[in-house]
Amino acid sequence: MSSEKVCVGAIGGAYGVRGELRIKSFCAVPEDIETYTPLTTESGEQTIHLALIRPIRNGFVARIAEVATKEEADALKGTQLFARRDQLPGLPDDEYYHADLIGLEVLDTGGTLLGRVKTVLDHGAGDLLEVQRPGSSETVLLPFTLAAVPTVDIGVGRIIADPPEGLF
Is 38 in contact with 47 (CB distance < 8 Å)? Predict the structure, then answer.
């Protein structure tokens, strides 16, 4: 694994008046966000030592050593939290971090370029790859299932897709 950063959560703002924060975790096991401390901001300029206090609806209440007041907590609202890639656990062969999929070329089973993965969307029923068509701003949502995406080759930087009829 490389030393790149992966977004593992975000700060939702202050929780109460004592400098506690609302944290939303993007981890498969939400509590794991605490084990990746120290976290950083996207720019890497700020290091954040996170301690979860208790779960709340859609996240956690947490303390950050560097934050003591409600105003300081509110100033961090919307800040994304990043962990170093080498802090994250390895994945089984058929699972991928979303960050690894973004930017990969998508080819059909005949080798025709369909586009590049712009983002990965998760709406609860399964992941969708938003594929940006070559030379266009148009995007297509490709179901990220074994039937529609039989091959993902991170090392080569491509995905082989067998999209449903008429999708592309």
Answer: yes
